[in-house]
Design goal:
seven-stranded mixed beta sheet; alpha+beta; about 300 residues; single chain
Amino acid sequence: MTINSRRVSVGGNRSIELGGLTLTYVVDGQAPLPACHWLPGTTPDFWADPAHSRYLDDRQALAAGVGALLIEDEATGEAMLIDAGFGPVSLDTPSGRVGGGALLDNLRSVDRSGGGGTDLLSRITTVALTHLHLDHIGWLCRSVPGTDRLPFAHASVVVGREEWAHRHLLAAHGVGPELLAAFEPQVRLADPGQDIGLGVTVFPLPGHTPGHTGYRITSQGATLVVVGDALHTALQVACPHLSSAADIDPRLAAEVRGSLVGMLADDEIPAFGVHFADEQFGLCIRDGDGGIRWRPLPA
């Protein structure tokens, strides 16, 4: 698979090792993002530039995956999920058709317990949310198909305190109180810098939503930053001024994104972008001319 094809397609599960942890991108579905709609600050001339058009598929959309990040400590058996996909539904939105439903099957496919112990789903005792949009909370409020059982009813749900305080604003994005009520009793509020377990600390990245939260994962001296929807596409690494149509505060989102990309490049810290087509794990690398680009880690 070439780097270019990874930019314009949504692939499968992918794992990396971080210190003593295994991090796995687990696919739930996909959400093609019509380019001009999703990045309203762009123009036809912008997309005519080959440096930008190489991120577009044949429908002139940015390929975006929907899924979650699984964090596992094989030594202890502990596991955590960051975000919860879209769930077993499909929905037409102003940005295109979003669909999910594969997360549980894909979690089973990466389960390394071998049937000899507690299964992976049961070992996920924390689901940490970057924010409360539909494509990140799906399996917290959708039942396992054919049952009335919520798959993560046993887990605590970490939400940034600011995000939860402003949850009423998410109704405009289709997240009403009836969806949040499905997991509200499980919610555990978290503050900036708080350690929520497995070496994961809260890393605020506001702008996309009022309390949008990233996470810093550290293990045995190695670090990775989960960027959530501070960035939707690797193109925004090179063009952090481009805010998405879903950013509630586009100016703040652009400022936060620019600072984030600069920090990741200066400190050479790998990152995880859940919507980054088929190149979710990577590094922000400075070019000779001072620009920054996304270099995906090997597939």
